[in-house]
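To close the chapter, one final illustration. This time we ask the reader to focus less on the individual chains and more on the assembly as a whole: which components sit near each other, and how the overall shape emerges from the parts.
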Amino acid sequence: MLRKLYSFAAGDCGVDNADSLQNQEILLPGHLLCTFVKEKFDECLESMRKGLLREMRNHSQFLNNVGQAKWWSKIVDRYGISSGGIGAKVSHFLSTGNIISSTGLDLMQVSGYTIVAEKLNFLRFCAHFRSVHRGQFFMEMKTTAVRKLLPDQWGFLCPVHTPDGGPCGLLSHMALKCQCMAFPAQKEGGDLEDLSELLVGWGVRPTGTGGESGDGSGTSSHTDLPVLVDGRVVGGASVKLCKSIAFQLRELKVAEKPTVPQTLEVAFIPPGMKGGPYPGLFLFTVAARVVRPVLQRATGRTEYIGPMEQPFMDIACLPEDIREGITTHQELDPANMLSLIASLTPFSDYNQSPRNMYQCQMGKQTMGTPGHSLPYRSDNKLYKIQTPQAPLVQTAVHGEYKMDEYPNGTNAVVAVLSYTGFDMEDAMILNKSSYERGFGHASVYKTVKVDIAEEMSMAVNKGADKDKIKLGNKTKRVRVPPENEGDKPTVKYEKMYPNLEDDGLPPVGAWVKEGHPLYCLADDGPNSGHVGKHKEKEKACVQNIRRLNMSGGQAGGRGSKDANKEGLSVTLRFPRNPVIGDKFSSRHGQKGVLSILWPQTDMPFSESGISPDVIISKLSLVALASLSKRSMSHFSRLFELDPHAFPSRMTIGMLIESMAGKSGSCHGMFQDATPFTFHESGDKIAVDYFGEQLQAAGYNYYGSEPLYSGVSGCLMQADLYIGVVYYQRLRHMVSDKYQVRATGTVNPLTRQPIKGRKKGGGIRLGEMERDSLLSHGAAFLLHDRLLNCSDRHIAYACKRCGDLLSPTTERSSILSAGQKANDSRTQLRVYCRNAKCVNQVQNEANDDAVQPIILPYVYRYLTNELAAMNIKLKMNIE
Amino acid sequence: MPQQRFPKIEIKHIAPHEITFVLSETDTSMANTLRRIMIAEVPTLAIDLVEYHENSSVLNDEYIAHRLGLIPIRYSPDGTLKGGDCHQAFVPHRECVCYDRCPRCSVEFDLDVNFDKVNMSRPEQERDLPLTVTSRDLIANNVQVSPAHFLNEEEQDNAHDEGISIVKLGQGQHLRLKAIARMGISKEHAKWCPVAVATYRFWPEITINQEACNNLTMEQKQELVDACPDRILELDEITGNLKPTEGAEELATFTEDLKYAQDAMKRRPEDDDYVQVTHSTDRFLFSVESSGAMDAEDILLSSLRVLKDRLNYLAAEVEKLKD
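The assembled structure is written out below.
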């Protein structure tokens, strides 16, 4: 350490970068829980020790009791597991993510350790288990240095799969083949030799604290490089020796019967880099490291490498990158640098990189197949599409990870053209017939959980019979009018809540609308029972009802009042077929909203009679800037674009997917879209490969076709791009978001409309909106929004003194007894209380200076508030 | 009537499920009208209302109802498998005089499949495997109406097809429902659409400028042949001249590839084209493929009837205006 400091002071080595993955390890949930439980154990034992000491001091019976098991269990209950014990603390930690610790456990944050593993779709579920967060502390940091994508994380953390916005670069995801060591490598088993012994045997001069091998003596030469195992200095060795040790260790790592851990990290940092990292041989076997497999060229075996050694190794990405004599390793697959979700994007190497990031984001928001155990699940919210398909164009990872079991979208025939104008600005037109045949049909499953015990006590408070109340329906007497005149009316008994059955619950498969009862607690009394209502505006179908015993897992439930705590879980299904405004996206970060359902007869059609399912505008797609000259000429011709244009999206991957999907559906095969399989400089470029397939199927080389207008039947004078693209439906739906208000609840203090969709509030017309209306001169609209639809108020103000607060009304004193309705004299008179005004009018007459004026109520409120501070607001009224 | 024309139909190919014909001596608007009527306005039967008695299958009610709706329902008046026009046999249910439904405006289907019952009578090797409920389990109350399985007897004999699957049942599951089919048009919902494909295209006129072609080398001619993805050109083996292939008119797709290829060969851009493929303005090649609800031939006839009815209606209304 001291040598490193001197070296740094001399400028020989640089500062270690704390943001580099080289110097980081991962805090694993198991390790965190382990230390947490350990600390709680310590605390528990400590409190028991204190308790025992107290017992010893205070009770003379102590010696008699010590031998009794019963007494000990009492002691443990009283001191050891008071307030729920370790279990309650762990469950509190897991349910809130907040760590309550006496030592702090060397952690940088106290909250946010748990997230709910949402099963929105399978991708999201997977991503939760591969995510790595840099820590809450860095979220607030102003500098962006920590978020930077460093080359050190190549192959370990995915460069694409990180959200944009707040957690960008802090929340990353592990690459596909990256693994995290949960145990120290020594524990892997097998005949492992002791590393320090091995090193000393190879000629490392043991030094100082050389651990088991060193005896505390020994010298170290300043020409030697330090050799460290897990951060502990074993000794020193010459540069040449270090290099050969590193080489030998690598051979041992991949040997048939490894004598050193397979995941041993052998970071040999050679000297001679001025301002570079501190040289030495650093070996790591500990847990919480990340490792990834690469191919060792000399032996042809797979070697696991770590982030510390990676920058000092020569790893070729592709076979053509190999430099003989220098390259020692090769990537197993260039796509291994991507995470699972990023590697599901077809042709992602053709897209502009932010688009791939968007797709990683949107893939996780897709309504797909969350799982196959739907009847047994009671998640708060689940989204499921009814007509999923396997994508025609898929990557190798898609098959490898059996993503077909969890499909997320539909193959749609997509035409790229501007038709009717409903497809401009990222909107898309959907074929009405496709919609009717099931495109994008989906449902949302919501589970309502009810605590019956709590509801019961509420019912009892309202006066229900405590002993007889249970889930059940009420009956009501209905008088049936007699059939023949003169007969006595008969009486029959009916269910009070006809949509509930006798057990007080709706039948499975029944539909409930807003305000319908979901369950009913009833007793024998003549009341109307205690009902829980369906609160959502949408109608829902009762999918499943479970009665639960909620006392089960609770600690301290032994014989306590919670033993019979009953619960109810009702799963409701909301049908959510696409409506205008719902969000869809392709797998290339191209999202759009459904703008209209267009009749099939009016859709354009091709020569073979195919009409597209989806129409998107070409302007939302295209891009040329990053293309090679060759592709540029291909696609610019297709889109009749000026090759100098500089569009922004650049999702060429989508164009290629469209071609590939089209040829795949013609030839009846799935297409491989693994990134980096096609290469611009290679002998086969993607456009040519699929172009030839299309041509073989009788289509145009680039997938364009002449289309006929469905309305006029005439040929449209352009070759239009039409193909098959996999479309996802995103979970953002209009029915969750629409906000409507004419009149409604107001804030009682200001009388202005409240905000919030749930409460029927309005949307704020803010300062900027106001400014834009002002600059348009739209005074009437502005007046309407800010006054009439907000807190319009009629107030009496005194013209004479300009006061808003003094005018008041007074009941006529003469007529206060025995008033007549048709009395012509005013019964209420309006006058101003101000000392100057009060005498200006004759008694019993209205003050003509007091007039009603229209003003925003907040103005009145402000006047009041200011008056409380002895500030008077005076108005000049003309 | 000025310029009255008498459109002709020349049938190229006819089968129960598809028909291709040439419509000539009329214009684009007429061709498009015919196409639009075939897609959207030919009345057929489709399941429109489903009453569930029991559904313990894995699919929910509306999902099964949607699947039932999309099953093509066939009306065969003469007891054969032929799918005929149903417009005379049924009344649109909104126009029917009955209160709810009657045999004149609807057909009822019963479906009752109980896994446990069926399982007993299944062969040993199939027992306990998931049971597929298909359109064949739908029993109609009208002998002339049935879900479409096969287009003709021959196909029915040859196929091992079990009908259109609706849902799979497992142990203890039971599906019992009553499905009511009504007559409607696809303008309202795609399930009433009788066609899978109904399209036309302009008849191509392929002219080969032999004079200009004489300036081309054989390689260049071959290049032109290869340039067409629709393979409309070939080289005459004897004379070495370019000629359209047999049936080229039915293959031509008017791709721009040919144009690009010959533009590249021209010495000057203003030179004559070697091969020209132009659209005929009064000849249309139609291709209609049935969804199974009706025979292709009947779809065409029905669409013509709909068109005629519409025009008669229009004429009558115009007459009324005159008065």
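The first helix of chain A runs from residue 2 to 9. Residues 350-366+403-438+580-729 of chain A form a domain with the Dna-directed Rna Polymerase Ii 140kd Polypeptide; Chain: B; Domain 6 fold (CATH 2.40.270.10). With these observations in hand, you are ready for the problems at the end of the chapter.
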